[in-house]
Design goal:
Blueprint: H1 3-10, E1 23-27, E2 31-36, E3 39-44, H2 57-71, E4 79-88, E5 91-94, E6 99-108, H3 116-123, H4 127-141, H5 148-153
Antiparallel strand pairs: 1-2, 2-3, 3-6, 4-5, 4-6
């Protein structure tokens, strides 16, 4: 299935197994994120950039699984898993029965104030918080998830669906 067809189909709220009034679509150079109701779904674009190879369905599934494994260390209640996007008759469905045509990372949709953009905007005036965030991210990168507690401690945004 062509990427443009996939994006068009997943832009329809009827493609999701839960209520969604509308679907917001956000693209980066390597992925597409669909904000549908209380959830977000991210698919990898079928690309091979040399340093990154998402060219096959199986590779995209693998990297979706890796993303969930890695990001659950900082946000275990946000990253829910990897779900199939299937062709069910003539329609695409997320997480349903049918022929798998794509894989998606399923996440809790965070409130706007919990996005990285908003968190950075709030953190920038505070060099201490930036240093703590940097140490926490470096610890996670270096395989030391117990140090990431320090990172989680600086980011509370109040009550919302999940801990970012």
């Amino acid at each position: 299935m062509e990427l443009t067809e996939l994006i068009t189909a997943l832009s329809d709220a009827a493609s999701y197994p839960h209520p969604a009034d509308d679907v917001e679509v956000h693209q980066t150079h390597i992925s597409v994120v669909f904000l549908a109701g209380d959830y977000a779904y991210k698919i990898k674009k079928p690309l091979d950039l040399g340093f990154l190879d998402y060219s096959t369905l199986e590779r995209r599934r693998h990297f979706c699984e890796r993303e969930v494994d890695l990001n659950r260390r900082l946000a275990p209640s946000v990253y829910l898993g990897v779900v199939p996007v299937v062709l069910a008759g003539t329609a695409l469905q997320v997480d349903g029965p049918g022929e798998v045509v794509e894989w998606a990372v399923r996440m809790i949709r965070l409130p706007e104030e919990a996005t990285l953009r908003e968190r950075l905007r709030r953190l920038l005036p505070c060099p201490r918080r930036l240093r703590v965030a940097h140490r926490g991210l470096r610890a996670v990168r270096d395989g030391c998830p117990e140090r990431s507690r320090e990172l989680r401690a600086i980011g509370g945004t109040g009550r919302h669906h999940a801990e970012p």
